[in-house]
Fold:
Amino acid sequence: MPYGVINKRCYEKKRTVLEYALTALQIAEVMILIKYREHIANKHILDIGCGAGRTTLPLTRLSKHYIGIDFSLDMIKLCKEKFTDVTFIHLDARNMEIFEDETFDFILFSYNGLDSISHNDRLKSLKEIHRILKKNGIFVFSSHNRNYHLANSFPKMAFAPNPCIQTKLFAKYLRSILNFLKYKGLEQFNDEYAIINDKAHDYALLTYYIDKNCQILQNKNMGFETIEIYDTSGKILNPGDEDNHSAWIYYVTKKINED
Structure:
């Protein structure tokens, strides 16, 4: 089974949808939205992988020209329930032909959404994003950091003094072990990127990991100039900086004009 299908199935589970509904903006995202406000305010925005609407409110406060898309139908249904006057579309980033070329000024693909699909599908998505982004438009996304020191870890049992909580922790550990054994053999490693069965959602996902230097090159090859990169604490990183403390990295890019 393609791992993109495995990941999609996980994101459509009720437990996952509810978990994302309770998640707030991260520090780096807040800093990026503030710093690049002029590229967002009153502009045409596409929020890819909008999930349960985590990024919808801050973006719609900046511009009414907002569209949120997600490949999980349950996520989109929840968004429509929460934000009745906002446009949400059940759509796959690999094929966004419903949008014309150079439609959006600002595109966000947050919470490592690009990491849920295969390498080839990732490139398809980036190609589509480049097509629908306006000249000099800004594209922001995050991606799991291959240098992260806990990227490839084994399930661990947690303990609590409360028996009820301990029972839940044991169930979580057992679920993690079963998923780990089920998906570990599907991992991939090469010079550019890795597909890792990490601890997210009790080891139920196969996630794309890439270091920042390879991602910067990938951005360039897909027609994006990398303007800034941030770690999870919101600190600006340079290509040669140590980054094994950061589980993922945020990239602020600009569409390279084709002469």
Remarks:
- The chain is about 35% helix and 20% strand.
- The chain has one domain: 3-145+210-255.
- The mean pLDDT is 91.
